[in-house]
Design brief:
- 73% of the residues lie in helices and 0% in strands.
- It has 62 residues and is mostly helical.
- It has one domain.
- The longest helix has 26 residues, at 2-27.
- The radius of gyration is 13 Å and the shape is elongated.
C-alpha cells in the first residue's frame, strides 16, 4: 500500500515539477539556447531532470 501511495504522489508531483522547471528555463537569460534545449530534453527523463536542474544549474522550481 505504501508503494502505491509513493507511485501516486510521484505521478502527480513530477509533472508539476517539470512544468515549473520549464517555466524557469524560459525565463532565464543567463543560459544559452543550446543549454536550455539540453535541459528540456533531460527533464523528460522520469524523476531525474528536475533534480539535476536544481543541483547543477542553480535552478528554482518556484
Amino acid at each position: 500500500m505504501k508503494l502505491f501511495f509513493e507511485i501516486l504522489i510521484s505521478v502527480i508531483l513530477h509533472p508539476i515539477a517539470m512544468i515549473l522547471m520549464w517555466i524557469n528555463l524560459l525565463a532565464r537569460d543567463d543560459l544559452e539556447p543550446s543549454r536550455k534545449l539540453i535541459w528540456f530534453i533531460v527533464s523528460i527523463i522520469w524523476g531525474l531532470g528536475p533534480i539535476l536542474y536544481l543541483l547543477v544549474e542553480d535552478g528554482s522550481l518556484w
